[in-house]
Automatic annotation (TrEMBL), chain A:
<keyword id="KW-0411">Iron-sulfur</keyword>
<protein>
    <submittedName>
        <fullName>Oxidoreductase</fullName>
    </submittedName>
</protein>
<dbReference type="InterPro" id="IPR052914">
    <property type="entry name" value="Aldehyde_Oxdr_Iron-Sulfur"/>
</dbReference>
<dbReference type="GO" id="GO:0051537">
    <property type="term" value="F:2 iron, 2 sulfur cluster binding"/>
</dbReference>
<dbReference type="InterPro" id="IPR036884">
    <property type="entry name" value="2Fe-2S-bd_dom_sf"/>
</dbReference>
<keyword id="KW-0408">Iron</keyword>
<dbReference type="Pfam" id="PF00111">
    <property type="entry name" value="Fer2"/>
</dbReference>
<keyword id="KW-0560">Oxidoreductase</keyword>
<dbReference type="InterPro" id="IPR001041">
    <property type="entry name" value="2Fe-2S_ferredoxin-type"/>
</dbReference>
From TrEMBL, chain B:
<dbReference type="InterPro" id="IPR037165">
    <property type="entry name" value="AldOxase/xan_DH_Mopterin-bd_sf"/>
</dbReference>
<comment type="similarity">
    <text>Belongs to the xanthine dehydrogenase family.</text>
</comment>
<dbReference type="InterPro" id="IPR036856">
    <property type="entry name" value="Ald_Oxase/Xan_DH_a/b_sf"/>
</dbReference>
<dbReference type="InterPro" id="IPR014309">
    <property type="entry name" value="Xanthine_DH_Mopterin-bd_su"/>
</dbReference>
<keyword id="KW-0001">2Fe-2S</keyword>
<keyword id="KW-0560">Oxidoreductase</keyword>
<dbReference type="InterPro" id="IPR046867">
    <property type="entry name" value="AldOxase/xan_DH_MoCoBD2"/>
</dbReference>
<dbReference type="Pfam" id="PF01315">
    <property type="entry name" value="Ald_Xan_dh_C"/>
</dbReference>
<dbReference type="Pfam" id="PF20256">
    <property type="entry name" value="MoCoBD_2"/>
</dbReference>
Length: 201, 774
């Protein structure tokens, strides 16, 4: 996990009162068996409380401590936009933003997450208006099967914000962690160039 | 760029067809709102499956101890071959591949049992505890292993014309050689997945990520011992298919259906990526032995090509795949006398299967390699050798007896691309560059594509569609084609909207399902829009004709004078809104639903004799690629690619250009970075994206120019369009030939011992080989 020193990040954290942290992990439910036999080791499968802010909404879940952020989102928060492509952190289909930074949610444990999470479902404006990157992907046919698209778009938004969209070459390099087997790459690059102008304009 | 600049075909003003409309699910895809099977809400009580695979590639299966598996908390059922109530067979045609291994194992990772558990995690943990005892036998891993044993999955087959051997001997020049072509993993981003939901009376509804729902239906019914009518297979969309979900989806759907039958609960299976790569088939890899005789201009007089295919453990689709290799071994060239033979070798590896091009790319690449060698021997530009061998007048009969009627299209494309890519000037410039660059070497190649369109199994060339018009004038469209990203749903919807003269927003496309349109062919062989577009148009036209009669009565004109456009039915200056007409039609008790059925005309193919017309038409294209290689490391880069491709009159140029670019890049991956490695025990060692490298954004040539050829299909296809799914993959042959050309610059006149894929290692090996040959 990357901890942001960005003061805006900190204030947002305060605002959302994120309580879960790696240090504060504790079982939510202690079984009666544990009370009766205090010498017994804690059950590693016992759920722990995970408190996330996803797309501006607080989500409290009781999860196995090993649950990835991707599974927490898909299976427990009902947000299936982020996809499971390889589950190894090698395809990028699961890319979401944590504290504004692109993050492979399949390689991130949900209990570690302390900053707000944004998924593809949270990218559009509250009035439903698409993010310029989403519109650019439509305008330029920057997908075929669509399975990698949520990850591509989240990565693309971050790529622009990181300042890595200065040229087509730079975009190609900084988008190379997101596989597209349909190879819509030329259109993805064009879409990012269009959206960059609007995001910065 | 959205290619808005493409004119409407033939000057006819069409409202939807030929327009570069976005993909039907575009708005959903960019919001993560287009559900794939793993995104569907799971019904209450859904169980999750994990598979236990064979630890050996070949041997007698003598014991399967699953006690520990059953003891894992959360495990509800453990399934083996003994639990199959029907026939333990998932094969598409030849009855030679079981759902679960029984008696013996055929490849490493072959499913032996499956666990159904309350959670996916429990199922996967439990699956690891199975104790599978196999008396190991030495596996056949390579084609040479299989040849030694004489093991094939299907009989040998050949096309023969004239006396090739004598023609080669009589020719002024001869070359003989051997060439290896690697396989390819599909790496659809959405892995294999199925969700089976039991229904009443033993019925089963299966959500399946497949290109062939009818086959999934049949295989599930066969496994469960049910009539086909009791099983429904449904697919709204796939996260990529590429051929990997033509036959390969059946096993997982059948496993989920079996688990649902045994437990009485909905069951879902989603293969882990490593399992997916180890347990599902890939593009066939080949060894090609060849001999060719040619004149001093490079014109081929006789050729012998022997294709040794690694088919894996079962026949699967290898009959059609390797046939298509043979059908495309001519590439774009006339071969006067020939033997094109094939062996379908049985190995203890996963059963190889369909992959975009369906064997065709391997046949074409082998011939392009021969052409390059001829050019090398004669010191001629390979493009000139390509041109003298190209099909032309009096030289227009394929090795399988079909006449190439429109070879002028292929030739025109070659000529046009040669000019537009400045091929000759750039070849000069590259020669100059290489003369002063000892380490970095450039190469260039311009290669044609001619791809036969139709299933070579003639009966598959049919399609059905079902169209409803509701009394509010909205239209529901269903057909047998499946959507895997290629834009088929949108193309067919464009055709139907055009037929009714209504807006696209009025046409609702529904998921492909065997209970709406039965007995379908797979969405494969690039035929999706040709077949389903036609079937849907025929369905829509029936309803339109009925509406025209009613409108004609209303306007007092003959039905044929009624025109449907702009959401109205017009007769002269009078009009009725389409919705109003639909309402009146319902009130007048007119049937507003129709099924369309289309079969491709002109096809006949006698496989026994090896003659006929297996293809309705050919799709043409050409690509010019320029590459640079580092002769010290073998690293390489594609610098520029120019493509000119023939899609006839495009149904949707935005979608077609995406198919061309995507197909090319996928082919480039096959020929450059994607390498499958099996060890001597038959284990696939490249079973994740960490070890198997598909192209990423930075691999795409920075200078990438794609143009649609201006022409129409001379055959009567839907709006004179041409199929586009597979042909562009073979445009990437130019990349392979350009790399070989760069290696060639080191020692002109010596053959380049480069096998495919041209990985950095293969390129280094070729450089060492060509240097050592001096």
């Amino acid at each position: 996990m990357t901890h942001s020193n960005d003061p805006r990040g900190a204030s947002r954290r305060d605002f959302f009162k994120i309580s879960a942290s790696a240090a504060a992990v504790a079982p939510v439910v202690a079984s009666t068996a544990l009370h009766a036999q205090p010498e017994q080791k804690p059950d590693p499968f016992a759920p722990v409380e995970v408190d996330l802010v996803v797309n501006g909404q607080r989500r409290r879940m009781a999860l196995d401590a090993r649950t990835t952020l991707l599974d927490a989102l898909r299976r427990h928060a009902g947000l299936t936009g982020a996809k499971k492509g390889c589950d190894h952190g090698q395809c990028g289909a699961c890319t979401v933003h944590v504290g504004g930074k692109r993050t492979l949610s399949c390689l991130t444990l949900a209990v570690m997450v302390r900053e707000p999470v944004t998924t593809i479902e949270g990218l559009a404006a509250t009035d439903g208006a698409l993010h310029p990157m989403q519109q650019a992907f439509i305008d330029h046919d920057a997908f075929q099967c669509g399975y990698c698209t949520p990850g591509q778009i989240m990565s693309a938004v971050a790529c622009v914000k990181e300042g890595h969209a200065g040229s087509a070459d730079e975009i190609r390099e900084y988008m190379s962690g997101n596989l597209c087997r349909c190879a819509a790459y030329p259109h993805i690059v064009t879409a990012i160039q269009q959206a960059k102008t609007q995001m910065e304009g | 760029m959205r290619p808005n600049d493409h004119p409407a075909p033939g000057g006819v003003q069409l409202r939807h067809v030929s327009q570069p409309l976005p993909h039907d699910s575009a708005a959903k895809h960019v919001q993560g709102a287009a559900p794939y099977i793993d995104d569907l809400p799971e019904p209450a009580g859904t169980l999750h499956l994990a598979v236990g695979g064979s630890p050996m590639a070949r041997g007698r299966l003598i014991a399967v101890d699953l006690e520990k598996v059953r003891a894992v908390p959360g495990v509800v059922a453990v399934l083996t071959a003994a639990d199959v109530p029907g026939k333990n067979d998932i094969s598409p045609a030849f009855g030679d591949e079981p759902l679960f291994a029984h008696g013996h194992v055929m490849f490493h990772g072959q499913p032996v049992f499956a666990v159904a558990a309350e959670t996916r995690d429990a199922a996967r943990r439990a699956a690891r505890l199975g104790a599978i005892t196999v008396v190991q036998e030495k596996p056949a891993v390579t084609v040479e292993d299989a040849e030694k044993r004489g093991d094939t999955v299907l009989p040998d087959y050949a096309f023969i014309r004239g006396d090739a051997s004598a023609a080669i001997d009589a020719a002024p020049n001869q070359i003989a050689g051997q060439f290896r072509i690697g396989g390819q993993e599909h790496f659809y981003l959405e892995g294999q997945v199925a969700l089976a939901i039991p229904g009443e009376d033993g019925a089963m509804h299966v959500h399946t990520s497949t290109q062939h729902p009818t086959e999934v239906q049949h295989v599930c019914a066969r496994i469960l011992g049910l009539p086909d009518a009791m099983v429904t297979a449904e697919v709204r969309r796939m996260g990529g298919g590429f051929g990997g979900k033509e036959s390969q989806a059946s096993q997982w759907a059948a496993m989920a259906a079996l688990a649902a039958r045994v437990t009485g609960r909905p069951c879902k299976i989603r293969l882990d990526r490593d399992d997916d790569m180890a347990m599902t088939g890939k593009r066939h890899d080949f060894r090609v032995d060849y001999a060719v005789g040619f004149d001093d201009e490079g014109r081929i007089q006789g050729v012998e090509m022997a294709f040794l295919a690694r088919c894996g453990c079962s026949a699967d689709l290898s009959q059609g795949v390797v046939d298509r290799t043979m059908f495309h071994a001519d590439a774009s060239y006339f071969l006067p006398e020939l033997i094109i033979s094939s062996r379908r070798l049985k190995t203890n590896t996963v059963s190889n299967t369909a992959f975009r091009g369906f064997g065709g790319p391997q046949g074409m690449l082998a011939m392009e390699r021969i052409i390059d060698e001829i050019a090398c021997r004669l010191g001629r530009d390979p493009l000139d050798v390509r041109k003298v061998n190209h099909y032309g007048p009096e030289r227009d009969t394929t090795p399988y007896g079909m006449t190439v009627e429109d070879h002028d299209v292929g030739a025109a494309i070659l000529e046009q691309l040669e000019r537009s890519s400045n091929y000759r000037e750039r070849r000069e410039a590259i020669a100059g560059f290489n003369a002063s660059s000892p380490i970095l070497r450039k190469g260039i190649a311009l290669t044609p594509v001619k791809f036969g369109i139709s299933f070579t199994l003639t009966q598959l060339n049919q399609a059905g569609a079902l169209v409803h018009v509701y009394s509010d004038g909205s239209v529901q469209l269903n057909h047998g084609g499946t959507e895997m990203g290629q834009g088929l749903y949108q193309k067919v919807a464009q055709v139907v909207a055009e037929e009714f003269g209504v807006g696209m927003d009025r046409v609702r496309v529904t998921a492909t399902t065997t209970d709406k349109v039965p007995n379908t062919s797979p969405t494969a062989a690039s035929s999706g829009s040709d077949l389903n577009g036609m079937a849907a148009r025929m369905a829509a036209r029936q309803i339109r004709d009925r509406l025209a009669i009613l409108a004609g009565e209303h306007f007092g004109v003959p039905a044929k004078e009624v025109v449907f456009r702009d959401d109205h039915a017009f007769a002269g200056n009078e009009s009725l809104p389409f919705a109003e007409l639909a309402r009146r039609a319902h009130a007048a008790r007119i049937h507003l639903s129709a099924a369309g059925h289309y079969k491709t005309p002109k096809l006949h193919w006698d496989r026994q004799k090896g003659v006929g017309r297996p293809f309705f038409y050919f799709a043409y294209g050409a690509a010019c690629a320029e590459v640079v290689i580092d002769t010290l490391t073998g690293e390489n880069r594609v610098l520029r690619v120019d493509i000119l491709h023939d899609v006839g009159r495009s149904l949707n140029p935005a979608i077609d250009i995406g198919q061309i670019e995507g197909g090319f890049v996928q082919g480039m991956g096959w020929l450059t970075t994607e390498e499958l490695v099996y060890d001597k025990d038959g284990r696939l060692r490249t079973h994740a994206p960490s070890t198997y490298k598909i192209p990423v954004a930075s691999d795409v040539p920075a200078d990438f120019r794609v143009t649609l050829f201006d022409g129409e299909n001379r055959e009567e296809t839907v709006y004179r369009s041409k199929a586009v799914g597979e042909p562009p993959l073979m445009l990437a042959n130019a990349v392979f030939c350009a790399i070989a050309d760069a290696v060639q610059s080191i020692a002109p006149g010596r053959p380049v011992p480069l096998d495919a894929p041209a990985t950095p290692e293969a390129i280094l090996k070729a450089i060492q080989g060509i240097v050592a040959a001096g």
